[in-house]
Amino acid sequence: MSRPVVTTEQFTIEQIVSDVRARGDEAVVEWSRRLDGTDDLVPQRARAYGDIPTAAILDAAQSVATWHRAQRPADVVLEVSPGVTLERRWVPLRSVGIYVPSGLVSSLIMAAIPAREAGVDRIVVCTPPRGAAAVAAAAALLGIEEVWAVGGAQAIAAMAYGTASISAVDKIVGPGGGAVNAAKLLVSRDVAIDLPAGPSEVVVVADEGIDEALIQQEIDAQMEHGPDSRAFVVRVGDDLEAALDAVEGYAAEHVALLGVRAESLAGRIRNAGAVFVGPFAPVPAGDYATGGNHVLPTGGWARSTGGLGLETFMKSVTIQRVSEEGLARLAPTIEALADLEGMPMHKATARR
Q: Are 207 and 233 within 8 A, CB to CB?
């Protein structure tokens, strides 16, 4: 994977990441001062204040918890041959860093609640100083204690490599702009990330005769995310397969299906972060309220990966148990393949 470089004024994201890795808190506060106008001497915890819609936040969190709780993967134990038993066990990650764009409480919910449901021990949130008060207030409501008023590439680097104030995490998740996504890709050489969830995208797939105002409403809602958001319309004419090919080619974050023929494609679309079916399933319903996750692949990543889910915050461990009799049965295979690959010490382990 190429190393992304995003230029901001006279420096690059790689320079910010490298500086934070080398100098820790000192670099974090210097870059925050330069980019966010802060005047702190050390990174600061976000302070919760101001009114937040408590009931709506709790309702959204409950829906997210319900949906993600149902996703828990099953452990598997299987005797694959006499005397050889394999077990695949799912365990939560020990620590996760969540990046929350400025003021986006919904993104906090989408990452923190699945992490909590998975059983992650330590959940760290970083969010830009502007908007941090609302994020901190929502985090307190959800029982998330560690929230830092640090944004941008310096936040990603701090969570990846650790500083005196912010301990390193095992995985970084969450959406962000170009600088944040470039930083995530840079640190992914050293710490796991979810995906580079960048500028928002929607493809509206519409039958002939669908109210144009409904199509425009979906487009306007996505463009509200920022000037770099993207929106496309696919018209379903006589060739339904051509419409499907167009949708698959975009591999977009969101796909909205409007009309009976468009809706018939729902079960066939593979390249999409999330698919919304029908006039009463606006994409913002998924952003805020359905319980489906809104941290989704963008920029064509939907061809190979999905959005956040419970498994994002877990990993599998394989346990292998082999009896004396089982090893005797495996020995000819071990020895033959070890001979083929020139591994005499591997071969020697087959006879004990």
A: no
For the chain, give percent helix, strand, coil, nearest 5: 40, 20, 35
| DSSP letter assigned to residue 38 | -
- The token duo for 89 is 């066990």
Does the annotation count 253 as an active-site position? yes
Is 324 marked active-site? no
207 and 254 inside one domain: yes
Catalytic residue among 253, 263, 325, 346: 253
Q: How far apart are CA 140 and CA 162, in angstroms?
A: 23
Domain co-membership, 31 together with 170: yes
**Would you say the pTM of this structure is higher than 0.85?**
yes
pLDDT digit string, tens, across residues 124-155: 999 999 999 999 999 999 999 999 999 999 99
In a domain, 332, yes or no: no
Domain that holds residue 297: 201-302
Residue 326 lies in a domain: no
Catalytic: which of 68, 117, 254, 263?
254
With CA atoms as reference, report the closest residue to 67 among 286, 255, 280.
Answer: 286
Pure H helices in 70-166: 105-118, 132-142, 152-161
Q: What is the pLDDT of residues 158-185, one digit of tens each?
A: 999 999 999 999 999 999 988 999 999 9
- Residues 6+ away with beta carbon under 8 Å from 274: 253, 254, 255, 283, 286, 292, 293, 294, 296, 307
Helix or strand holding residue 341 (H, E):
helix 324-341
Beta carbons of 177 and 225 less than 8 angstroms apart: no
